[in-house]
Every structure is written in structure tokens, then in C-alpha cells.
Amino acid sequence: MEKATRQVDMAGESWDSWFDGPGVTADFLTERDQPPVQKREEF
């Protein structure tokens, strides 16, 4: 059985215009709170 998917696009825009647009500032997420790495069971 094939999984249902949905694509959401910006109205009146293409992805190219989004990726070609201005980037983020140098201080974007520089001090992001990141939880410690979780210890997980190995396979």
C-alpha cells in the first residue's frame, strides 16, 4: 500500500525564489538551547 503524501507550496511562489532569497543573519540560532544527546539502545 502506498503512503499518502501532501506537498505544501507557497502561494504564488516557487521554491527557487525562496532558496535564492536572502539568507539568515549571522546571529541566527547561535545560542539555541539543545538538550543533551539521548542514550539509546544499540542494534
Automatic annotation (TrEMBL):
Domain of life assignment: Bacteria
Biased composition (Basic and acidic residues): 29-43
Region (Disordered): 1-43
Protein name: Antitoxin VapB
Native source species: Photorhabdus luminescens
